Each structure stands twice: as structure tokens, then as C-alpha cells.
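Internal tracking record. Fields below are filled automatically when a chain is submitted to the structure queue. Please do not edit lines marked as system-generated. If the sequence contains nonstandard residues, flag them in the REMARKS field before resubmitting.
Queue: standard
Priority: normal
Entity type: single polypeptide chain
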Amino acid sequence: MRFKTILMAATSLAAVAGVAQAQDTTPADDANAVEQVVVTGTRTTGRSRLDTLAPVDVVTAKNLQQRGATDISTALAATVPSINFPRPSNTDGTDAIRPIVLRGMGPDQTLVLVDGARRHTSALINVNGSVGRGSAAVDLNAIPSSAIDRIEVLRDGASAQYGSDAIAGVVNLHLREADHGGGLTVTYGEYVTSFKGFYGGKHNISDGGSATVAGWQGFKLGSDGFLTVSAQYRDLDPTNRADNDPRVSPSRITARTGDPKTEDVSIYLNAAKPLAAGWEAYGWYGYQQRDANSAASFRQPAFTPTGAKSSDYNQAVPSIFPNGYLPLLTTDTEDVAAAVGLRGELGGFKIDTNLVYGKNDIDFGVENTVNPSYGAASPTSFAAGGLTYDQLTYGLDASREFEVGLAGPLNVAFGLEARRESFQINPGEVASYARGPVAFAADGTTALTFGSRGFTGFTPSNAVDVDRHAVGVYLDLEGKVTEGLTVGVAGRYEDYSDFGSSTTGKFTARYDFSPSFAVRGGISTGFRAPSLQQQYYTATSITYVAQALPGGGGTTLVPFESGTYPSVSPVGLALGGKPLKAEDSTNYSLGVVYRKGAFELTVDGYQIDVDDRIVLSELFSNAAGASNPNAAQIGALLAPYGTTAARFFINGVDTSTKGVDVVARYRINDEQAGIFDLTLAANLNDFSVEKTPVTTTLATPQSLFARQATLRFEKGTPREKITLQGDWTKDQWGATLRSTFYGDVLAPGTANDGSTDWKTGASGVVDAEVRYTFPIGLTLSAGADNLFDQYTNQIPPNLNTSGAGPYSNFSPYGFNGRFLYTRLSYSW
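SYSTEM-GENERATED OUTPUT FOLLOWS
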């Protein structure tokens, strides 16, 4: 693997050195030319991405298309080195709704906009042990790539400009605008891969068949308006990289570890129509229905091959599943987005006012499973309840340039945003969480578990229906102070109905020493309001504990709950929970911009300090043991509420992130060789946890955010990510070659001595594509993602005794292996 990585890097650098001798001109019609105008991070019109005061990446629709994956998150991670997109498995809803990570920060610390308006988050909150644990993030893959014209990624804190969540940066998706023309793309691919497992020898696999049909069409609205309709259908078969299970006889694959089975259909409409007096009405509507199916862990038969009780004896129902069973979690998601707006000019000010609504609804189900306490009468499929989040936002933005005696006009922008949010938890059917009539297994002593195995349904006591509102105002100034110095100042005040208010500010500056060289930097404060999901998410399961009846009259089974509770619930308060408050951040940045002819280079260093980050606490339990000296006290505190174990969201983790982004690009237009576009991009990132909270309510101090959780933050994403990419076009031919190097990632184990930790190892992944456009305008593409079938280090048998997950969920590029694909595209 190391040899391949070195070879890839050497080959790419040699290509750069060789073509650098070619003609140094940039084609005027190059869609990726230097002077791409951006609107994210600045409210001054006409600013190109190399003229900004803070770094902005621009990802075009063409960039999104030139790879096998047809989802936005995967394409962004391949194009922008500071973005990572892990692909965890066996993590409940996170299998189907996976978040992106910018600069190693939390997924909910990156703000997502659509055409400059805040997009709603997913209803899902990640509570399992994957990257992004504890966050409720935006689901980028709910938007079809065919609806996107370009994406701008602001790599800088921007809460003072855009409000809550913009701690790490901003992702702004711009919808396609067209009144004519159209395009249709059909993509099909599948994984053709092999790996050698510790238990099952070599596995040769072809799976994960992926079919995507996407298209768009522009229509005129009268003589001067447009309506662009975009649609996409995807059908993705599941992948499975599980090894043989040594616990069963004969040894065979019992688990399913990989991407879920997914089918989705999406449609987006984007329209604008000029009105009288220079005003324009605009709006968009988007809808996606996604059905996903992923797996939980395999439940063994009641007895092992040696005749002993299996560890899953209390979950077995031999009359239904004599050979064990693999529960399957269904995640059916409905996502809606709609906006109406009006823009024009009033009193010399450019005005943009809009009303934006978004809703994300998730229904969970479990199939191929049982509620053991129902015995032979148990259903094998369950409706397990669901989550709903919606958001209604009103925005008003105004800007105008003033001549105030500076070297250039001063752009003054101000505005307000009013937002209402709501969050609901809907309980599942009774059998998904209830205790049935069968209390004990056939031996008469083993208490049976209950609730649907694989995913226990939400109970009526988990039901939540809450809302809040927030209002924010901002002022943003930007102008050229002297001939070479441009300065920006922004301030914002927001007030929330639940946690209080926040005031943030930002100062940025740029000095152009010459047309070729500039220095830019800034300092800003930011915040992230606690989400409704973090404040109110509740998911508990019930256990029955045998207790003696008074007077020696035998025993009875008493129900106790355990799980995740709101911090201000009676259970949370008993353990020291407090109302959540906003995270606070300070962002420092300093960078340089160099451009000469067809060459450009940006280097941007940053430091992001976050105080009082919101995290999911450790589990408080009444289970006695050497590692739980407070068991008796915890039991006494929880007993009045019928609870045996609990966790909740807390503030109190301080973090510091330091890093540098490097982007170098060179473009050549040679009459004989064709057009070359070469890019080297790197993100070097160091994340550290500076402080963790300790409970003050227990006799023995106990960490609320212990070693494993800390290491997930610090080492769960690669410290280094380097991408070398070359794009070539000549007449009807085109090709893309991309090599990406990922630094080592740590998957932390539960043992405090580090004996159960595992490292993924450094990896190099190569993607390649070749294209040909026929005279009729039809383009045929063929390619491979992960051409050399690269995997991370495999987890050894002492840490993986079931063969279920040979590879870590912390792999920065997943663990599916080589993906081969072909694509047909036609534009008119």
C-alpha cells in the first residue's frame, strides 16, 4: 500500500512538472477559470473566489459528476480535502443518514445554506459510537445532484454573518437556474472487490449494484422568467464486508456490514419571475422519499455448537428462528423544502426577503426480528416510531454601497432572521417496546429480553412535542480602506426562547501587495445553539428486576427504565443535569493567495477554539463493579424514578483545532495535447480536547466525557488528507485521475489501557475516469473509484470475535473496496 501511495504521488507530481512546460494560457470558456464569482462569506457583489477575505472552495456541477458516486456528500469529500465523509455501519439511523465533517469539527458545527437561506437539519440525532456522535446535522444527500449548479464551501467561522452553527464554516448550495435546455444522466456501477478475512479466507465479492437516473429541464416563465425542474431516482443494493462467524457451525457469514439497501426519489423545482419596477419573485420546492434498510448485529441460536447456552440465549425464540436471526432496521425518510421570496431595489438598497420551510420526517421499523417476551406468538416486524423536525425561517437582507472617501465604496449590509423550530418523537407500536406474557426462557430462570431486537421502539414516555423561536439581527461592513487593504467587520445578535441570547463579531482583512500576491486573515467569535434534538431526545428501554415482596411473600418483577434522557428531566436533574447553553467559539485565520498566469496557490492556517461544547454524557448505572464506585449512590438517586441507568447531553467540553489548508492549481491549454487542469489540495488538522467535565453530584468524582469519547473527537478523522487530481480534455475525449492520501485514524476501544484500540493505518485511494462525447452530444464515461481496491487495516480476531465488522467504522473512505461504473450523459 505504501508503495502504491508513493507511486501515485510521484506520478501525479511528474505530470504537473511535465505539463508545466506547456503553453501558459487559460481558455476563456473554462468553467473552472480563476475568476469564479462567489457570494458566500461576502455580501459585496462581484468578488471572485481568489479575491475573498476568507477561503472559499467552489465545486461545480461538473466536479460533482466526475466520479461513480451520485450523492453530494461523497463528491464533496472527494473534491474538498477539509471535508470528510465516513461511512459507518451497524449504527442504526446513521447508516442511512450520514453527516459530513469539516476540518474535523462536529457535523452540526457547519452551517448549510441553499441559495443563501438556512436549510433545516435532519430529525435524526447520532447517539451511537460513530464520528459525529451527539450531533443532529443536515442531510446533504436529500438534495439531488442534478438540481445543483455549484456549491461554495466557506472554510472560516461565520456566525456573525449567518448565525448559529457556522463555527467550522458554511456550505452553500446553489440551485440550477435555466429557462431552456436540459440534461439526462444514467449511471450504473457495482463493487468488484476482494479481501482476506481472518475467519473465512479470501472473499471475492460483487455487490452494491447502484443505478441512478437523473435529469433536469429548463422552461420559460413568460418571456423573462424561468422554471428549472430537476429529478433523480436511485436504487442502491446493500454491500456486505462481514467475515465468517466462528461462533456458528458450520462457519458462515451471519452479519451484514456495509452500506444499506437504499431507494430514493427526489424532485426539485426552482423558479424566478421578474415583476414591475425591477423586482423579482422567486422560490423553490424540493421533495425526497428515501427508504433504507440496514442491519443490526446477528442474534445467535439459543445454543452454541457445543450445546452450551449462547450469549444471546435470552433473545432467542427457537420456534421462529431456530438458526438465529439478523434484525434489519428500516429507515423511511421524507424530506420537504419550500421557499418563496422577493428581491429588488428600494431606496438604493438591494433587498432580498424570503420565507423558507423545511421538514424532515423519519419512521423506523424493524424486520426479521422478534420480541422474545412474546414467545412463539411474537411478530417478526415492528413499527418502532419516528422523529420529526421542521423549521420555518423568515429572512430580510439589505445592502448598499456608499462612497465615504475610502479607496473604494463601503458596502453596508444588514438584516434580520426569525425562525421557528419544532421537534417530535412519536412512539412505536406496543409490541416494539412492551414486555409480553412470556417472562422466562425454557430453563425457567433466564429472564427474556423484550422489545423488538435490533432497535427497540420509542415508548409513550419518550414522546416529545416541543418548539422554540429565535430572532437575529446583523450588520456587515466591507470596503477597500487603502489601495491594497480591504477590511470587513460584522456583528450579530440572536435571541432564543429557550437558552437565551448570543452576540458574535468578526473582523477580516486582506492586503494585496500586487495583483499576484495577497495576505488575508481574520478573527471571529461564533456560537451554536443547542438543538431541540439535544435538549429533548429521549430513548429508553425497560428492564424487569426481581424484587422480594413484603413479608416473605415471594418475588415480583418491577419495571425499570434505562437510556437517554433530557438533561432537565427529573432523571437528568437527579444526576446533575442542567439546561443546555450555547457553544462559544473563537476562530483565528491567516493565509496567503498567489496567482501567476494559469497557476494559483492558497495557503490558509486556522485555529478554532470551542468552549462548552455539547456532548452526550457517559452512562450512569447502578451496576456494581470496580469501575463504578458510585453504583450505590447512583442507584439511590435513580430509584425514585424507576431507572437503573441514564445518560444525557451536557455542556463542558473545551476543544482546540489547529490546521492548514493548501490548494495549488495549474491549468494548461495546449493545441496539440489538450487542456489540463491539475490540482494539489491538502488539509492538515490537529484536534485536541482541552477540558472535560466531571460530575459534582457523586461522592467519587466521575468523568462525564471519558477516554473513548475524547479519542473519538481527537483521532476519529484523519490528521492529513492530500488529494492530487488531474483533468484532461482533448476534442471529444476527457479523463480524470485522482489520488487521495488519508492519514491514520484511531478507533478507540473501551479499555482504559488502550488494549482494545485499533488504528486504520494510512491509506492511498486512486479514482480514474475516461470519457468520450459522440457527435450527437452523447457522452459515455467509464471509471473506477478506489481503482486498486484499497482497504484500511483489518481488525484482529481478539477485537472482533464474531467476524461481523472486519473494518472500523472510523475508516475515512468506508470499507467497500473497488467500485466500477459507467455513465451515459446527454444534454440539449
